[in-house]
Amino acid sequence: MKKFFKGSYFAIIMAFIYIPIIIMIIFSFNSGGTTFSFLGWDTKWYGEFINNSPFVKSIITSLFVAVISTAVSLVIGTMAAIGLSRTKSVTQKSWFNVANIPLINADVVTAVSLMIIFIVSGMSFGIGTLIMAHISFNVPYVLITVMPRLRKIDKSLLESAQDLGAKPYQVLFKVILPILKPAIITAAAIAFAMSFDDFIISYFTGGSQTNVSTFIYTAKKIKPFIFAFGTILVGAIVLVIIGWNAFAIFKQHKEQNKEAIKSGLYKQKQIHKLNLAIDELVAIIESGQIIRPTKKINLWVKYWFVNLKLKWIASRNFDKKIAKLEWKQSRIKSQINKEKRYYSRRDNTKKQLKKLNAQLARTKTDVKKAAKLTLQIEKLEDKLIFLNEEIEYIENRDELSKQKAKEIQNDIKKLKYNFKKEIKPSKKTISWYNKKIKELEQWKIEVEEGKNHYKLRLVVERLKNVKELNYNQIILLNEKSLHLYNLTHPKKSLTSKLDYQILKTKNENEKQNLIIEKQAQLLKFNNKYFFTIDKKLQDLNFFYRKVEKLKNKLNPPDDREIIHTKGFIVRSWKIIAVSLIGLSAFAGLTVAYIKNNIYDLVIGNWGEYIDPDIITDFEKKYGVKVNYQEYDSNETLYNKLYTFNYDVMVPSDYMVQKLAQENALLKLDYSKLNVKGTIDGKDLNPNKPQEGQEQVELVSGLLETMHSSKAKESEEDSKLYPEQTQSTGTILSYAIPYFWGDLVMVVNPTEANKEFLTSNGVNIDPNTNEIISTTLSWDLLWKAKDANKRLALNSDPKNIFMLAAEKNYQKVNLNKITEVDVAAKDVKNLILANNVSLNGDDLITKVSLGQFDFALMYNGDALYANQVYNHEDDEDDSNDGETKFIYGRPNKKNVTTGYNEGTNIFSDNMVISKKSNHQDLAYLWVNFILENMNLITSYVGIPSPSQSAMDEMLAEDGDFADYPDLYKPKDVYEGLSEEGKQLSFQYQEGIDDYLVDQYNNIVSGKIG
Questions:
Q1: Do 970 and 742 touch, CB atoms closer than 8 A?
Q2: Which pLDDT tens digit goes with each residue over 709-734?
Q3: CATH code for the structural domain at 741-906+971-1004
């Protein structure tokens, strides 16, 4: 296993990186509408991608921002690097560390900091703030990429340029920047990738701008058209890499050709080949013989076998072995000679010492000379001591070796004596004695000869063997191969048949005729070969001329006269061409960005809450441009309002209350809305529809729920707007429903789960799989948790606390701090269990794959997940054998209070901003959406507020006819308390903030 991972480590890493990309590419061709199952091959999602206007706009925005921020960051980062390189090392290091802080800092902190700066500065959030934010985090990447390359520049180059009269700007553009070019290109690639891919900073500072990452992140469901974009992006990156490498290879090949021309090796291979061919043809003409390969298969087999053996033996690299052994031999000889020289060196040292002592004895008056001689004598004495010690060691070693050899000899005699005494020894015993005696004999030889002499003898013997093996195997095989080549490639006369006939013929006249025929045939062959030689000579002359031309081009004969004759365009055409292409591409990108960002109406909506074709149809009908923005939660929408203003938004009911209370919403003029409906038997909109318009009837149950959601009006609204509807003081004063639904309990219909439900007194309708028991309670989730069931819960804080609120107080909304505290204990007990997961939009994926036992989710999401679970996107629309999830809305009666439990009925609503500058167009948008509700609800799969759309979806041939009870929110008013009848979440300032804080404290302690 260890060997497998060691040998396959790189392959495993590559698989880990590239398998997800391959899967994405495959799913981009999925004929199905989901990302969970592959239903066949189709290219429709590429068309969907091209026609998805908001997504294409986000790509254009990402490209535009990435190009500008990269260009500006390169200039700032490169100049900063050059400036820092001129400072002291301490200053340089300090500022470099400061510049690296954004890289270490968390992106979310950087994003919030930038947002606060832009708000304090009073800047309007949009493309300007987005580009500035991207520049701020791109500059450090440029700096850390360019700086190391800058440090490697030899200062002598800069000094040389200055000595030659170059001005500072010339040094910059002609010396520094060309050297930095590879680092600048790398920095540009990194900065572009970081900018194009950024989400968090763009999310907080983008305002009206949505880039690719923001669009994908806020999408409620990941559809295959996003995979199509990813595949195109991967393809573009691959093409860029291939093109870049091809250019690099071409450039390298060009440089190699230049070097070959300089060294005279250019096209020498082809020239040599042509010369060989000409020589062979000339030899054929001169000798009159040609090689005719033999037809004897046995000779060919021998020839191929010998060549194969020769290649295998040559691969063993005898030359390397011989060189290594010769080096060992030389080193051992050097050690032996060094020991021998100790005696001669000792004798020479003694002579020199004697001579210096005599000189010192004669020197009496010259003190300096005496001191110098004394130092020399001391050195020689130290040397003599060293040599005596070495010689003594050698002599002692030799004496010890003799004694050791005698001891080994005695051991050998004992072994031989013991061996003779063995009675009928076994083969194993005989082998052991022989082996032991042989080892001792070799050891004895090594001791007697001396270690170095013994090593030298072994090396010499090994060298001799290798050289013999080299000769015998390589040289002899070469000779054999040459011999077999001559046998397999024998030379025969061009006129061999005629030669044989001439020898055989005795008739002189016939022989003369054959000789004449032979000469004619030879002439014919010669003419043929001369023609071939002439052709090859032409090819040879062509190569010579080409080489000469390139030599002259590379090294002009009169360099001093030609070097400055090229014009500016000839010298700079490459730079001009690249600049023009770059400017043209940027101009096109700018035009595309401006064209897609001149809009008349700004819409803020949840991800995947509209069919993109609806936006296109609205734009065509009214001749306007729509900027369609997406967000993933009410809180995100609320935060974005600090930086940007929408014309129309789609918040949930409680967020409508909050925005209305803050005076951010326009009170609706129902005379401009083509809607009708009843609340408590009264008309919602008594006004007549506009001419040519038909009123859209809203679902009465939904209107009653929305009517229970109070919205505090500002004094300004009370004065400006008279009473126009039957909904004054509710969110209907500000909002028209877009979608609605309720929270349901969903159960995976396994046998174990069915048994669990039955054991808890819960009955199931066998036709619809709906729980029909009147004893269903949210408390079942706590029991499922204790039974170690897998729970997947919607992670919204108010949804989670709703479970405990209904369980304890039979109401959706908690109105007191004490109630929140009681609910928090139950919430903590539920969600901190390891078998309970909190999920955002990935809840749909988890349920679609059946990776759950119990789930808390919106009915529309449950419906979509169940459809995916049954692969209803397949071309076969039959539902035979489909599995329906078990679902239900709790309605258990509490014994203490006497009231039933209920569930949250939510509504996502269209509202118009009070700051909107296009209010009339906003009303047109709201009416257009309501008119096309059947298309929108069919696309999204969430219940529509339009009664006609609901009827169409639930008709016999409707999209959701198989799930009527799950698609339509349940009417659960019966048995509820007055507080419990407020089925939608209410905004309660202070209470809601406290609830969210409690939820965050609980979640922070959750592991897994």
A1: yes
A2: 887 765 555 555 444 444 557 888 89
A3: 3.40.190.10
